[in-house]
Amino acid sequence: MDIVPIPAFGDNYLWLLASQGRAAIVDPGDPAPVQRELTRRGLTLETILVTHHHGDHVGGVATLAGATGARVYGPRGEDIPARQVALGEPAAIEVLGVALHVLDVPGHTRGHIAYHAPALHALFCGDTLFAGGCGRLFEGTPAQMVASLAKLAALPGATRVYCAHEYTLSNLRFALAAEPGNAALRARQQHCAAQRARGEPTVPSTIAEELATNPFMRCDEPALRAAAEARRPGAGRTRVDTFAVLREWKNGF
């Protein structure tokens, strides 16, 4: 199966899954680039997968579903346009002959879900986990996001992380401010800067790479707890407190 990023809105990635003339799309916020890619590749869209309700993820759902008859899957706890199947953990569905396991990952929004495809070593996580970062807490709590990230951290290290935005360089600049002594992080920043200079996406990353370099996945690390403590006395005591301070810091970084 091919997994292809379709750029949209400047920094979004709409993930196209293609196999033997059939296709699925993840979080199609804009229908036009999806329709162009389907036509260019001669694909029939069968499935639309939605992770959460934000407009840049659902704006093209109704148009694409109406034009193609594609079946629309989305989180059961959110209002998703044209949704036909409401999903939540521990549901599993089959898409293009591949099993996708649904994970509840609230934090960015209350009902956010992710799709894990073990056979593809792939995770489609919307705005929960980013390369080098995580989503803002628009509706959820720090405790919810910490639990969601821990759930994703437990996936196999080789799992590729297909997140929805090209935020990597910005995320890594913050990560280095929070954990300047992390050599793996500095090497990753250099590698990703070279990728962007060549016009290449920096995603997907892997779970192993995130565990080594993403501060929001590393809130038990002494250096990050110390960084949180320096910003707010007492914030280094627990993973949730450390996460909350790091997320607030990143919001204004």
What does this entry show, briefly?
By secondary structure, the protein is an alpha/beta fold. Helix content is 36%, strand content 26%. Strands 1-2-3-4-5-6 form a 6-stranded mixed sheet, covered by helices on one side.
Question: Your description of this structure?
Answer:
- The chain contains 9 helices and 14 strands.
- With 253 residues, it is an alpha/beta fold.
- The strands form 3 sheets. It has a 6-stranded mixed β-sheet, covered by helices on one side. Strands 7-8-9-10-13-14 form a 6-stranded mixed β-sheet.
- Helix 5 (168-178) runs antiparallel to helix 6 and helix 8 (222-231) packs across helix 9.
- The mean pLDDT is 98.
Shape: globular
Spatial sequence of strands, sheet with the most strands: 1-2-3-4-5-6
Helical region count?
Answer: 9
**Structure class:** alpha/beta
Please report the total strand number as a whole number: 14
Distance between the termini: 38 Å
What is the H-and-E element order?
Answer: EEEHEHHEEEEEEEEHEHHEHHH
Low-confidence blocks of residues: none
Mean pLDDT: 98
Strand content: 25-35%
The helix fraction, in percent, is: 25-40%
Whole-angstrom Rg: 18 Å
Largest sheet: 6 strands, mixed
